[in-house]
Input
Amino acid sequence: MSFAFAHPWALLLALLAIIPLYKSGQKMLTYSCLALLPEDNLSLWIDRGLRFLAGLAALLLALGIAEPYLREQWVEKTGTGAHIVLLVDRSSSMNENFSGTYLGGTAHESKSALASKLMVEFIDRRKHDFFALVAFSATPIYVLPLTQDHEAVRSAVLALGGRGHGITNIAPGLAMALGHFSGQPVTGSRIVLLVSDGAARMEPEIAEALRQQFQDNQTALYWIYLRNPKGGKLTEAPKNPNESTTPEYYLHQYFHSLGVPYQAFEADNTKALQEAIAKVESLENRPLTYREKLPRQDLSGLCYGSALICWIGLLAFQSLEVKAWNI
Amino acid sequence: MRICLYLSWRFWSLFGAAVLLSLCIAHPTLPMQRPVFRYLFVIDITQSMNARDYHQDGFPADRLGFVKASIRQALDKLPCGSEVGLGLFTTRNSQVMFEPLEICGHFPLIADVLDHIDWRMAWAADSHIARGLYTGLREAAALGANTRLVFFSDGQQFPPEPDFPPFDGQPGAVGGLIVGVGGTQPVPIPRLDKENRPMGFWETMDLRDYLPPSALPKDGANFYLSRLDVQSLTRLATITGLSYVQLETPENLARTLLARNLAAERTVKVDIRWILGSLTLLLLLITRLNFSPIGKKI
Output
């Protein structure tokens, strides 16, 4: 099951282990009156033992060459952590910096580059968490399923630092993010972490369907809103309410009405963004069943080691060998 | 000295074997040069990629599905230590989904993401191949010197443009391939709704607002057809210094991706225990041979 050979063909060499059983490898000495001597049981058994030892040594060598190993294994453990779907805005406005200036293709201060950098740090600190990643602009992109492969999550979040394209369309993104949880058993707290710099109007029927999905999947929602310092605050009702000019305010209201834990963090500079991520981090530390991968274990060293033990016996007896009667 | 004379050759070969065996336990390795690959696969997910013109048993008929299945098979053939990243192309841009990951350690994940790639992920519907390819090259360059771009597309430009925009990069700075997808016979493009249900085919009349008058048919009603545009793709390959290959079977893709000129040599530590182990076994078996030394008095 979890046991395998790296080079199974080398097991054929094990057939060679028969040779030492038939050939003792001792020098034949002639003695004129051998027939006179009684059969000595002890000698017979020592001879058999030595043949067996040599056969065993050959067998162990063949096994060692075939490289047996225990496959990678998953062990279930309980710790603290969460299942987090990162739902990250990749619309073209994410290429700008916080003050709304477009910085050119290679800028390191764009909102997306900053968010990506801080998220990588976040992921590195959360060793036991599961992460999934959905990037969205006009449509959502399935980037990664829920996984504990943090190296992969890292490489995907790093790629988010690149240029984004298209408009912001939040609803399909939320639906895809929630899709990662539907039909799965609840084995830890579930979070959708939305990182975006804006919102868009949502159709009422879609809003209702999403509400149902949030409740069914018992998923908490955190929104890190990368706000333009000149833009409106989520908590302040706009002067002339209109869902197409200030969709963020309405989205915030809607999220509050979901009936699941929800918190928004407004960040209009790097420091605020850092603080927002730290807050999310402190919130989600509930018991979590997670699986840890034990790496593949090599067993050929064990074979070679055991063969070496046989060897000591073989050598000891070989050194006692009588070469000739007349020394 | 006396002891040397006293002990037999059998003893010394067993002794030598024991030394080899002890070395074995120390897990010796030798540094060796092995070819590995670092690829960024960028896949065209515009709607013409839904056209169905592949006919191979056990593989999807649509271009995008065939590309995915072919990449999936090629992943199996690439040596461990090779890295693969995935990206999407639509409109004017290539967007990287994840940076190249070592394939053996992350295989299930890469396969899952590949499986989920879908035309509905396109953030806009146009298809400016040349610009997409240029941004793909830029993304690949940003991912490190050994990264090769493999750009999968049918070359179907939409809306049609008379000429390619100028390439401002250096041809050949990023190596790699353009993989032409589809057949050379024009076929209609399926029109699918958001749930992926077929709604017939794209007709020229649906697209008349985007097409130049010359591309409009005289009689009015007919399908908007798509075929693999070999000519455009080979021209783009020349402009950018990439090689052009046509995706005919999954096997030919795997073979192309294993080409030595796309590989980077990397030093890997090769386990040599099996060599020592075999020598030990050989020495043991030699001691079991019976040959009486000639000229010696027993």
Remarks:
- Chain B touches chain A through 56 residues (CB under 8 Å).
- The longest strand of chain B covers residues 93-102.
